[in-house]
Amino acid sequence: MKPGPLDRLIHVLSKLPGIGEKTATRLSFFLLRSKTGLSEELAQALLDVSREMRLCETCCNVASKSPCDFCLDTKRDRATLCVVAQPQDLKAVEKSGVFHGHYHILHGLLSPLDGIGPEDLRIAELVQRLHSGEIREVVLAVSANIEGDTTALYLGRVLQDYPVRVTRLGQGLPAGGELEYLDSFTVGRAFESRREL
Q1: What is the pLDDT of residues 70-108, one digit of tens each?
Q2: Is the entire prediction scored with pTM above 0.70?
Q3: CATH classification of 5-50 is 3.40.47.10, yes or no?
Q4: CA atoms within 13 A on the CB side of 103
């Protein structure tokens, strides 16, 4: 028997991270009962994201245009580059209000056990950006866990061949903590206490 539209919606929603079958069922029935056009609005937003979003050719952020607004902003410090693992980490750093330079998104962290090596990340694009000569400091704003430490150490070795200061966020990041879930005060403190790698 072919599943109906409600069963298909529950199945699709349950594939999202952090959404089990019970939550997917609850969300599906909420959308079904919604009289405000929320279902259509959600469907249109999903279509728009899949059609319009792309990677910025400069920083590899997810954006609706390339170069993105961060890269085009002439008020930002071009000499300082903050390297983060994911686009949501960029949002966490921006929310702290303490960083005013440019960004580079790796789209992951090194994890040999999961088969994620340097070629799977946007490291080549990062190195290419250093050839401009504008960048004087690279801030490694990666999570304080095994994958983040491995990535920071690897990048430290790669970047030692370039005339840039390489720093990593300091106090404030709990061991094993994910950057995207930290409050803006903690991210701000971590930026203020960054250190040489």
Answers
A1: 999 999 999 999 999 999 999 999 998 999 999 999 999
A2: yes
A3: no
A4: 32
